[in-house]
């Protein structure tokens, strides 16, 4: 094959790939702000108004639904796969309603038969001890995530981290609850919804020290590149629990930004740092909260708040 033939072949493959992936940017203004108009079957550039593609095939369903109930009734597919279940949600479930396909009640003989089938279905969902342990760990992650009030994305990430730890045989010699809790703590940090070790240990069945030790081991072994937690991420939640205004929240973020620039944040606990900034902001905005109240919400000691507060007001040039 000659050089020119190879070049033509590569160009053709590139064009085919672009056709499959679809247009990424507007050919007129090179903007990537493209919007699909499903009614007209067009792809339009929102910046310059150019119709980039027309008569596009709609990959969605052929039916229309106007509420959730209609959508559920017309849908012909099941729930998407999820990492939060040991079998990824691909199992068969025998319904508990004891009714046939027409909604009629089944006979007592059939009911007892379905009860036995349901029981065996639950038993054979896990084929070995490894799967049973995974099922227990994922249910623990789900329980703790619900108690912490974190979104579903965090549960998915935690489940993936736990599965990776299981695959790398990092569970051996450690408790399942400890590794599951550490995976959830890591997922919270990964997704930018940080929870302190104290908050995590409150909903867990293991001690704070074990969670911290297991978390460090897992993050090192799996190469989880964790950035330091930004104290500003704690401010909205703490302010909400203390019933402080938007003004205090803005002032606390300003204090954190200015003092962090001077290197005060290095080596400090982000929760304690955020709590001290909120305490300082509440005083400056005349919405005073006691150190005890702030410490209870942030789950730090009053001494920590006093020390960080003193450092912050000195750095800001405020004389308290």
TrEMBL record:
Residues 21-53 form the TFIIB-type domain. Residues 1-15 have a biased composition (Basic and acidic residues). The keyword Zinc-finger applies. GO terms for biological process: transcription preinitiation complex assembly. Zn(2+) binds at residues 26, 29, 45, 48. Keywords: Initiation factor, Metal-binding, Protein biosynthesis, Repeat, Transcription, Transcription regulation, Zinc, Zinc-finger. Sequence repeats lie at residues 139-222, 233-314. PANTHER family: TRANSCRIPTION INITIATION FACTOR IIB, TRANSCRIPTION INITIATION FACTOR IIB-RELATED. This is Transcription initiation factor IIB. The lineage of its organism: Archaea, Methanobacteriati, Methanobacteriota, Stenosarchaea group, Halobacteria.
């Amino acid at each position: 094959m000659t050089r020119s033939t190879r070049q033509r072949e590569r160009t053709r493959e590139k064009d085919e790939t672009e056709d499959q992936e679809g247009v990424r940017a507007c050919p007129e203004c090179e903007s990537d702000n493209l919007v699909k108009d499903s009614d007209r079957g067009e792809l339009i550039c929102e910046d310059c108004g150019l119709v980039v593609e027309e008569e596009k095939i709609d990959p969605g369903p052929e039916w229309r639904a106007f509420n959730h109930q209609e959508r559920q009734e017309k849908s012909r597919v099941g729930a998407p796969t999820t990492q939060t279940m040991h079998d990824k949600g691909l199992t068969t479930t025998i319904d508990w309603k004891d009714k046939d396909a027409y909604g009629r009640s089944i006979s007592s003989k059939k009911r007892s038969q379905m009860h036995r089938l349901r029981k065996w279905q639950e038993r054979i969902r896990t084929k070995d001890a490894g799967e049973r342990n995974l099922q227990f760990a994922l249910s623990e992650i789900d329980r703790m995530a619900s108690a912490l009030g974190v979104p579903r994305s965090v549960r998915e990430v935690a489940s993936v981290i736990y599965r990776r730890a299981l695959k790398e045989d990092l569970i051996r010699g450690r408790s399942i609850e400890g590794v599951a809790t550490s995976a959830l703590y890591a997922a919270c940090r990964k997704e930018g919804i940080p929870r302190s070790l104290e908050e995590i240990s409150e909903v867990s069945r293991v001690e704070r020290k074990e969670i911290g030790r297991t978390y460090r081991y897992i993050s090192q072994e799996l190469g989880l590149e964790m950035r330091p937690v930004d104290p500003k991420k704690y401010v909205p939640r703490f302010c909400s629990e203390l019933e402080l205004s938007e003004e205090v929240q803005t002032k606390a973020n300003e204090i954190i930004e200015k003092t962090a620039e001077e290197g005060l944040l290095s080596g400090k606990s982000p929760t304690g740092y955020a709590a001290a900034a909120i305490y300082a902001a509440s005083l400056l905005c005349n919405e005073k909260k006691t150190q005890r109240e702030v410490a209870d919400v942030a789950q730090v000691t009053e001494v920590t708040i006093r020390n960080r507060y003193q450092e912050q007001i000195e750095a800001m040039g405020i004389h308290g």
